[in-house]
User: What shape does this take?
Amino acid sequence: MPAPADAIADRLGLRSMHAAAARFADWAVDTEGSSRSSALIRIGLAMLFWSRWAGELLLYRDQSPIGLFLAANFFVATMLLFLGYHSRIAAVWAGSVGLAMYYYFGFQLGREPWTHHHTYLLAVAALLIALTPCGRSYSLDRYLAVMRAERMGVAPPAERGNLWGLRLIVVQLSVLYFFTALDKTSYAFLSGARLEAIFLWYYAGSDYPAGLAWLATIVSLAVVVLEYGLAFGLPFRATRRYLVLPGLAFHAIIYLTLPVYTFSATMALLYLAYFDADAVDKVIARLQGTGSPATAKGEIS
Amino acid sequence: MADVVSTRVGAEPAGRLSAGRLRFFAFIAIAAFMIAGPVAEQVFGVQTPLLRSWTMFSAIGLGVIDASFEIRQPDGTLVPLDRFVMLGARRDGTLKRIESREELASVIKRLCTAAGQGVDIRVRARQAARNGWQIIRTDADNACAG
Assistant: This one.
């Protein structure tokens, strides 16, 4: 027979709330898994940093002391991030350079489009990947660790670690999707008017094309529904399987049609954070011919 | 959410601030910061560069004008007027996108001048605003009159 206090707690649903909170805490900060998906994100982020800014930051472009200082920091930090040497420090360094570009060079000095979302997202992603074991796989750190272990005659360190940084990336992406959908939840957007204006701005000019009205309305509704779906559905395996491809297609379309710079590619890369890290590891092993197809197949969804 | 769970946050002895608990508090603080940015701007209307909102492309296209022009023929009928042909301008030039009421007024003035005295040109125009399209001109009157 339950104690009276327990019975009251049961009636109020406190126990189930407590259990849910515990499950959330387990998911958020107590999950260990393969470090390979974190490492892939680390490498991808370094390449996205270069893709977006390397050309703008070549040393001859801005020869002022602060310009050279920024360029030097950018290239050293991103190179270390790419190679995976002191990977987590490199990630903090690269993320800080990104934030300096966003806040100081962008907002303070008015350099555009450095104040745009894609800048902020890249910088934040680099900072968050620093909270993962991103240097334990596919890195110079890993190579050195294996060499050290061999010299000492012990097993190489496991390619595993706490994945709370990946969980924070999941939270960041859901927050992003939710609030961008919320911003569009208005008559102006849902009626298609905002998309029509964007289409006129980039494509048609002041000549409204026939048939645009209904198409803009349908696309607007679809975009808002999809973004809410991605916000709440991607973190869960049951719904994720139906949302990953639409989400990637959505980002591919906006990449092709609008000047989103590295935004779409960053989002696509960060989708790796949604997947079970060990399942990603199994898929990689399978691709390399070292894993069991049966195990990997069912889990990467 | 199916990764292997290692140690539990709540498994630490009471009173001790374990690494797990510290990590949990840091997680909540970082997540709160992520949410605070869009909430501040999109819910409370506070705009600051320190907090990032997620309002992509919300200002792109604002001010653009959707305009159509018609000219009255000698038999009294109205037919579409191609502003590029009338002004001898390139379709992909500056005349393609009219971005303000002043620019529209200038285009109308040039069309009236090019068409000659006594011409009757009707202009329908609407401008993109934050709350949708705003009608700024109807074809009720001759745009070249007065």
